[in-house]
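Weekly puzzle thread! Below is a chain. First person to post its structure in token form gets bragging rights.
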Amino acid sequence: MSALSLRAVAIDTYHENVAYLHRDCPLYRSEGFQALSKVEIHQAEDGRPVIAVLNVVDDPALCAPGELGLSEQAFSQLALPAGTQVRVRHAQPPASLHGVHRKIAGERLEAADYLAIVRDLVDNRYSKIEMAAFLVACAETGMEREEVLALTRAMVETGERLDWGEPLVADKHCIGGIPGNRTTPLVTAMVAAHGMLMPKTSSRAITSPAGTADTMEVFTRVDLPPERLRRIVQAQRACLAWGGTARLAPADDILIAVERPLSLDSPGQMTASILSKKLAAGSTHLLIDIPVGPTAKVRTQAEALRLRKLFEYVGEHSGLHLEAVLSDGRQPIGRGIGPVLEARDLMQVLENDPRAPLDLREKSLHLAGRIIEFDPDVRGGHGYRLARDILDSGRALARFQAICEAQGRNPHPPAPGHLVEAVPSAVDGRVTAIDNLRIARIARLAGAPMDKGAGIDLLRKLGDSVRAGEPLYRIHAEFPADFGFAREAAVRDSGYRIE
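Winning reply:
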């Protein structure tokens, strides 16, 4: 087997190892490699190989006939300098694929099957095609609750796990789908001001106009190394950071890279994804927010109750004290949709500004109150009052500001997008419905979350009266092309029903 010279190819293949061979490479022809087949790359016969999906190129500027190119992730995983002589051979299919085939056939898998699959996922032995097959099989044939528990445990076991050395570590999570629902920073500030530990790591947006990390980035640095985050949590009793720096349940990140393009979000996968991250992050007490509404992720009360029972079952059998609450998901929460506009809303709540959106304030108080009641020294039913006192007294604001200072305050916070246009009502009437999905799409077309100041500023909510020509919301954008896309989408369908 001939050796090839290793070359780094500056392509981000997003959670998939990819190797590149030139079509005229002698090894490509002699070994019978084909595009999209999997290969093993190693330097020494006794070394641990890196598995990659093969791509064939015709441009020698990308990869010459005597070279083996590796994508950024694969090159980093191999951890050898460019120019190193490496060897390539056909990779054996992972044995765990038998479990995937059985799941496709509708069989129930055991805990050992899920552990084997997840280990191979984390070791990059699966191509995205094989990952998609596993995800679709789980979504279409369904997962029993014992299978969801097994998948959750496997995802935790194959990554790192934090230990905060305290008996009560609080967290919250919303399953998503509601624009502007930026309760997490408010809840975290109130809970930390009460004295409870709440090390909150959150995600960036993937399909929404803003994630908690995107909004917090308006105020402070969120991309922090784990040791610094630990020091901040010890000093402030909380953090509000991006969770991508810690290797917590890494299989979840790999699967999400395939789920999102396929728009897959089955109850079993969702539950395992959320709870594996929380368990790995060291949470002991968790509050799950399940918004219910006609354009939310969960459309009916019956569906929400089934999901709540699944969360509770997996949480109980994982040693996690978990409560799931159903909330109103008929419309966006707050007024701002997009990082800067959501940041404005949450500051108005923290500052007790009379202009603060009441729905955002009240939802945050209720969620914070439920978490505060995890404290064994707090009597049931008293959490809301304690949370309200913490907010009204300014203690939540002070704690939020202290967290931002500790993480590294943004010296130049962005402003709302300077390109602005109001979207008017076509008729007189009352707002009877707001389409969450449509509003989120228009905000993303405007540039959110990549452009922090882009998004939508809502001027009317459910039940509000409006006359023809009066504005329903304002679109903010930074760039003319995005502005045009958002305006055109709003003209086609504003997302509002007026009757």
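Puzzle host: Confirmed. Bonus trivia for everyone else. The mean pLDDT is 95.
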